[in-house]
User: What shape does this take?
Amino acid sequence: MAMRVQLDARAWSRSRFATSPAMEVLGVLRHRGRHPAAHAREWHARARRALPPGQLALLEALVPADHSYAPDFLTPVPRHGESMPEVAARIAATPAEEVDYQLDIAIRGRRVWPHVLAQHPSEEAYERWRRPLPPALARVARDGGAAVATAAATAMATLFASVLAPDWSKVRAVLDADIGNRADRMAAHGAAAVLDDLGERMRWTGTELVLERTYSGVIDWADEGVLFVPATTHVGPVLFAAERPHTPVLVYRARGIGALGERPSGVAEPALTGLVGVTRAALLTTLDQPASTGELSRRTGWSSATVSYHLGILLRAGLVDRSRRGRVVRYARTGLGTALASSSPSGDDADSLSRAGR
Assistant: This one.
């Protein structure tokens, strides 16, 4: 199962990079307080303090933490140099029918569009994929798609102004550095080098970009290429947004987010940090789900060699296990590792850990 973006050499030559403040907001909302990047967790904590509860509830209803789909009207196709107030104005101006259609896609009980259903293996699979209508969204949606767009735009603008704006110059520096690095690699090694390390489950065949998903479809209107958008809050495989006739957008995790003070996952307990050191404590708290060295490298911004070295020490200390599936090796916390990552170690646990060193 895959989404296929038809992209021949001519269309590829028209592809370009852009940045999007709305995409940064989306990443904060998607992962809440469990985001692996410390700066994004801090932004979400600020949002909980700064936003009226109704606004944050609406945004989190539109961008669920437990579902893969968020409506595309929240993140309009980026325009060069556009500010968040300008983006919010475009969100508010989204046609009501477009908002309703995007809500229909993923909300159970709303209209089923045949071409959306056709992307899934069966009607039952599609219904399982859809989600219930959250109360915070239901209260606004009863007044129609235009009301949802207006309320969402106001909430997005408030979140950005209250939370991200003070850090935006640093964020832009990271995003611009990522784009510059990839432009240099393209000049040195060719256009295909742009795709190196953007994320797993994506490849270019020479005529198509193939993104592995649990559903299938073809995007055949990328005549003007695609927009590559780095985001410091993105996690996981490359995200795509594609609504005809707009230019398809591919969002990936920017490199260099350590400059924003990133420390993966939750701030490690002082006792744990003292026992294993900051890097290993951070890796241990990040492993709330099994992950490969490459995945951990992308989450943390550390090199694969650094991650591998510290995982080896955690493995020898009995704090993580590893398992192989095909060519991929994934690491997972042991019971002891989980206990230490979730609470301050003491007694026997601390003694058992002492050999992990710094």
Remarks:
- Residues 263-356 form a domain with the Arc Repressor Mutant, subunit A fold (CATH 1.10.10.10).
